[in-house]
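Tutorial handout. Part one gives the primary structure; part two gives the three-dimensional structure as tokens.
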Amino acid sequence: MKKLLFGLLIPFFAFAYELKDLAGGINPSSDSSFINLRKTFIRTDSKTHYLRKDAAYALEKMSAAFDSYIKELNSERNKNNQKEVSIKITVISSTRTYDDQARIWNSKWNGAYSKEKNLYKRGINILDFSSMPGTSRHHWGTDFDINSLNNTFFESGDGQILYTWLVVNAARFGFAQPYTSGRSAGYQEEKWHWSYLPLSKKFIKEWNERYSSKKDFYILKKFSGSELFIDKAEEYVNTISPVCL
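Part two.
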């Protein structure tokens, strides 16, 4: 039986995160600060997903609020003989370990992007949408992707209803979109990616502190081209929506 997180008191302690927390060296399935989303009322795809407990608690509340909004919207639509909306917030990607991110990176390096023989350009092309291992916000257990990894999904129909609601309401629950449009550098826009700011702001602060003292601190294991982009890591970690800094 799933356990509702509403009302759960999660104590806050000020502490410095360990390297494993900052760069993805965690195992969320055995870390008591994480929760399997199947134990919550958060909707997911068929995969197993983990978030830090306080991020999951806030997401559960936000999902319930969106469900209530859709119920009210459908009530009005029924009165006007309009088609009902069926969309729900569904997590399709959550916490990723360093090894998870390395598999994504190396797969693209040796696969879809391998035709680019200039290795530096190859990595820059991958960085349009994929983080280097050790630099992904998904390592922190604070960030997740929802519904579709395609911006156009959120630009019409039910997807647009969801995105418009999030833009207006997500901040009430502590969430924001890190990769917005109009930024001068960094990753491309990701309307599907949302972050729990009360925690992720602490993670990015400590990540930057580590980077300032040792630029390659995040390279827990070498990955394809890892030595080529050490000076670019800070740019991609920090070129985000100002509200996420």
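Part three, for discussion. Helices lie at 19-23, 53-79, 98-110, 119-126, 157-169, 197-213, 233-238. The chain has one domain: 19-244.
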